[in-house]
Amino acid sequence: MVYGNELAGIARELVVKGKGILAADESSPTIQKRFDSIGVESTLENRRDYREMLFKTQGSKDFISGVILYDETVRQLGSDGELLIRTLQNQGVIPGIKVDKSTRPLAGSDGEVVTEGLDGLRQRLTEYRELGVKFTKWRAVISIGDCTPTMYCIRTNAQALARYAVLSQEAGLVPIVEPEVLIDGDHDIDRCFSVTELTLREVFYELSLQGVILEGMLLKPNMVISGKSAVNRAIARVVGEKTITCLKRVVPAAVPGIVFLSGGQGDDEALDNLNAINLVANAMGAPWELSFSFGRGLQTLPLKAWKGDASNLAVAQRVYYDRAKATGLARDGGRHS
Ligand code: 13P
Predict the structure, then answer these.
(1) Per-residue pLDDT tens for 162-200?
(2) Is 307 a catalytic residue?
(3) d(CA 22, ligand 1 centre) in Å
(4) Is residue 310 part of a domain?
(5) Which of 169, 204, 260, 267 has its CA at a distance of 20 to 30 angstroms from the CA of residue 163?
(6) What pTM, to 2 d.p., does this model score?
């Protein structure tokens, strides 16, 4: 692999102690949903103002190593006429990009989905590299139900994830491999454990089959947690123990870092669980950095503070700064709740 050492260096930089990743790569329908929640129209200008507010938050670079962008943002100018990607680079924040094209119904399955976006991916990756992007993300979605996930769904998504990852490395871009087992449902934590274990086992099998360099990638999984509507949801310490136990079974030590998604957990829940995972890892030992790549976990509070109103800019930036700092602390097991 031409870019082997470069990839490993970028991957390690993204999971440096005290820092993690901001996922600001919401697709147009998703950012629309987020803006609907604060009663703001999703226009090109509003999306720019919102994301610029995040990227220009003074001091956030102390806790944010990289930002995942959406295609629109990677070419977008800020209100000052500077490319937004340049604003990140100037602070030493590493720009990344979401390259999947979202999920579609999986043919032959009842209600499951497969992530699309492989067609033309090689060309898109070359262009992103020229634009200064250093890493990429692809999200596969696995849902837990009475009869799901099927092995067919897990395998189809794992194959696509590996296809994406090897193409990304070929273009000199670090892939963030994201197989998300959804939080939706009333299942208990042990069911999440077994589905996550099975999914990750299949993903790493495909990654090895397709020649992905483990040192030059990051894994972005769900935490092992109870379903959102389960009764007696497991507490943070149990989440920490089960998550580390599960990952140790299936994630090779050559992978430099694991960056958890927040996955619709409550504001405190996501940070308490990330903190507990790191405390357990510190006590038991773990071969990888255990960091974050949060979308909602970092953005829900500043979005509410911003409300689409320029006069709220300073307040929203303060809220985002505090949130990034708290997440950075949890990433090292140093959160006091
Ligand atoms: P959440 O942290 O909101 O789950 O988003 C992370 C992400 O990038 C999903 O692809």
Answers:
(1) 999 999 999 999 999 999 999 999 999 999 999 999 999
(2) no
(3) 9
(4) yes
(5) 260
(6) 0.98
